[in-house]
Structures are given as C-alpha cells and as structure tokens.
Amino acid sequence: MDDLFSSEDDDHLFDLDYNPYARKRPLSSRLDRDDYDETDEEEANRQKLYLVPYRWWKEAQRSVADEIVGILYNVLSNYDNADSEIVLDLRKEESSGTRVKMDEGVSSREYALVKEALWLRTLKWHNDSKTSEEDDRYHCVAEGQSQEVFPLQIRLSFSPGTNSLLVKISLKDNAVDFYRRACSIFYSQSELLQIWDFSGQTSQFVMNEIINLPKFSPGKQGKEVLLELHVHGFFVFTNKTDERLAEPMKTENSFGKSRVRMNMNSDNLSSQLMLTNTSLSGSGYRGIGVLGFAGLQNLGNTCFMNSALQCLVHTTQLVDYCLGDYEKDINHENPLGMNGELSLAFGELLRKLWAPGAMPVAPRMFKFKLAKFAPQFDGYNQHDSQEFLAFLLDGLHEDLNRVKCKPYIEAKDAEGRPDEEVADEHWLNHLARNASIIVDIFQGQYRSTLVCPVCKKVSVTFDPFMYLTLPLPSTTMRTMTLTVFSTDGIMLPMPFTITVPKGGRLKDLIDSLSLACSLKDDETLLVAEVCS
User: Where do the USP domain residues begin and end (predicted)?
Assistant: First the structure.
C-alpha cells in the first residue's frame, strides 16, 4: 500500500522537533516540584492545539500574505458505543499538502487544527475587525458576546492496517458536559466531516510511528497517546426550540462512574453548528472577551521594563508578527544575535499577554533572558527605560535578521544627484545587510549634510536610525507683574500679570500691558522701574 501520508511538502511544512511521546506532566504536578523551571511551562504552551471552525479560521487568512498549506483528512465516525466512547478514523486526502484557496466555498462540517499562536492571531483578527457573518448554519460572535474554549482529552494512535489515524474520545477521560459537546460536534450521518491540519502535528506523529514501528501488522494498532485538545467556537444548534439536544441519561455503574446515553436520532440532532453563548458548566469554559488587556507585575523596580514592553506588545504590526510563525525568521548564525533566546522569550511573553482572559503576567523568564545577555539589567535596581528599549530592539533585530551573510557595500557620494535617488540607494544598501520586522516597523533614515570649511564641498548622506535623541523644549516666554497708577488719582493702583518674550524689548512689555489694562487711544503708558 502506498503511504498516503507522504508528501513532497512535508519536509518544510512541519516542525520535525515535535515529539508526541514526550508528554508533559500536568502543570499542577510540575508546580509542586522543587526543580520546577518556568521553561517547562513555556514549552508546554507552544504545544497547545486548538480545533476551530474552518470557516472562522479561513476568513482571517485573507489578510495573510503567506501561502497557506495544510493536510486534509476525511473523518469517519464510529458511534457503536456512543454512550461511552467516540472513535474517529482520519484518512488523509490524496491531494494533501493542499494550498488553501480563499475563493473556494466551505462546508459547515470542515474544521481546522491549529497551534495556539495561529489561533490567537485569528482570534485577534476577528476581535479587531469586529465583523459579524450570519447565515442559516454559522454565526461569528460579535465583540459583545461571549466566546468559550473547553478542553477535550483525546487518545491518538496510528493504524498501519488502514494507514490512518484513530482518535478516541472517551467519557472516562472527559467531563460529561465536554463529552456531550464532542458527540454533538463530530456526529454526522449525511454530510462528510473533514479536518484540516495546519499545525503539522499529525503528520509528524505518523512519521514517528512509522520509525518506531518498522514492521507493520494489519491486526496491530500503534501505541495510544493521550493529548489535550482545546475546542473553540462550537455549539450544536437545533431547528426546533422545544427539542432538547442529546438528553443525557445518567446511571451509576458498578464502579460508581456516571454513564451517558446519547440519543443519536437524526430527527433530534441537527448537523448545523454555530457560535453562541452557552450555560454549560465546567471549569474548562472561559469567556474570551477583549484581548490584550493584561498587565505586567512589578518584580521590583521593573517599571522601566514594563512600560517599554507594554508599548511594544501593543504595536499592531509586531503583535501580528509574533502571533504568527515568527520562529522561522530566527537567525541562529548571526554572531551579533542571541541565538534566538531573546526573541523567543519576548514572543512567549507577548502571547501570554494576548491570551484570552489573561491575568497579570510576571515577566520573570523574560527578565532572566534579558539579564543573561545584558548583565546591567540584572538585579532589581532602577534603570533608564530608553536604554532598555534600545537594547531590546537591537537584540530583537539581530535575532530576527533574515540576512544570513551580510555583503560589503561601499557607500557612494550624492554628487549632485536628486535626494530621492540617493535616499533609495542608501536604504537598499541598508536592507541588504539588515532585514527584519524591527527594521520594517521601527527604522527610518535622516538626511545628513556636511560642508567642508576649506573647500566648501557639500557631502549629503542618508543614515538609518531607530530612535532619535531630542532636547526637551524650553519655554521662550516669561511672566511679569506690574502695578499701574493713574495720573489723575481716580483709579486705585492695580497689579497686572503679563507674559512677554524672555529676550523681548520694552515695546513688547508696553503692548502686552496696554491690552491687559484696556488702554484707551488717548492714553499712554510711562514705564518706571523701582530699585531698592
């Protein structure tokens, strides 16, 4: 049998470092360890997978310039033991490695499997656009409505006999409410169920299985791996309001565990899905709400760092970049860089701050990485925010510089050429050695003119800059208080406070005072200074 999972694009589509067997212990158990390292949590966050409606995901990809490639699976559902277990048979479409075409229609039974960063970017796009699309089958939640995420424990294995992936969703591994929703999502009698994998995890899982099981046996199934899948955006919708969806019948078995009997009659269960508010209980549900409204905890005199970080993590272009696949741009060969450690720490911190329902984040790991490469920021002393920002931007640029080998380019003099031509030439020379998201967003160039005092030759160059040091503007005005007497003695002496230029003349004082005391046309002012 031909290997349906092989693809010419597999080598560059998927992260080959992913190891599905290196399953991490739950975070609660890792926190109890004395040797707990926050890098464990950072790594665990990068492995999160999300199942979302494909249409919801695809709508946000219209603004992405990169070509989108995914693996398409046709899903066969087995509901013989639906009261306790769902079995899904995922078989790869022959045309997989397919590039997504934005003008194609989308079935309501198409789902997408994405990594957390891609899910966050899509979620942010929908929040930013504040768009709403509604038809008979689908509704995209507006900003004021609640969207929820719930965890689903699945058991993944490879079947060599059918050359397919088997996914088991069991009641014993999940809460009753979550299992009910899983049955509602994956149940279909008529319409074909399809799942797009844009994470690369399934393909890599199969490759590891083939390596570990060199001798296939039709009757032998691969090792089951327990994974956690985060499900977002699904709720079953019925056409009749008086119908109750999949009414559970709970009975106690001999082991004291509740069993759920699902009524899978097609008259009671609609195959239409929508996003909506739900009242289902469970610790896995969380309202998404507004994104990016998380704070940074003060670790001790770290206001200088937090203020600069908040400015950067709310720079729109940088947020979209870090929520994408920015790891591919990390330059590990750059001797001026930090082997990607600073950019990875910044990216993970940004994703935490943009996570739905995020609580205030303690940037300890980021500060640890910062102090590793800039010892002056170690400890808890006060520092200059601009000094920190300059180092961070420069470090991110070198880590993410797409230029692997910097060419030597000799700068040419203007020699009377138009400024536009000279500016473009200097900028292209700069980009030939420096090309990163930091250059795209934060760098520009200014015109520098140098005149020789001897021969009066004028040299014009255009130099790149990332920040400008400017003097604080000082005021050029001063206030003065004067007392006005009338010569006829009718008016009492009255003080007036006026504003005049610091280097002004007596005429400026008289003009301002004339306006302040409403001097008439036939009246004049005589100014006298009283000394000692």
Answer: 294-532
Q: Give the pLDDT confidence of 155-206 residue by residue, as tens digits.
A: 888 887 777 888 888 888 888 888 888 888 887 666 788 888 888 887 777 7
- Of 507 and 219, the structure prediction assigns the larger pLDDT to 507
* 350 and 313 co-located in one domain: yes
- Say how many CA atoms lie within 13 Å of 276 toward its Cβ: 13
| Of 243, 245, 228, 145, nearest in space to 185 by CA | 245
Are residues 485 and 451 both part of a single domain? no
Per the structure block, which two tokens stand in for 158? 């490879």
The pLDDT of residue 101: 52
Q: In which domain, by residue range, is 495 found?
A: 472-531
Query: Nearest 5°: CA angle at 117, between 114 and 120?
Result: 90
Name the domain boundary from 209, 232, 255.
Answer: 232
- Per-residue three-class SS string for 55-72: HHHHHHHHHCCCCCEEEE
Look at residues 399, 392, 404 and name the one whose alpha carbon lies nearest to residue 344: 399
Tokens 């694009």, located at residue: 9
Q: Which residue has the tokens 């992936």?
A: 165
Q: CA neighbours within 13 Å on the CB side: how many for 439?
A: 17
pTM above 0.85, yes or no: no
pLDDT of residue 58: 85
Using CB atoms within 10 A of its CB, is residue 106 exposed (0-12), middle (13-18) or buried (19+)?
A: middle
Q: How far is CA 348 from the centre of its chain?
A: 9
- Find, among 99, 97, 79, the residue nearest to 89 by Cα: 79
Helix (H) or strand (E) holding 510: helix 506-516
The pLDDT, as a whole number, for residue 2 is 42
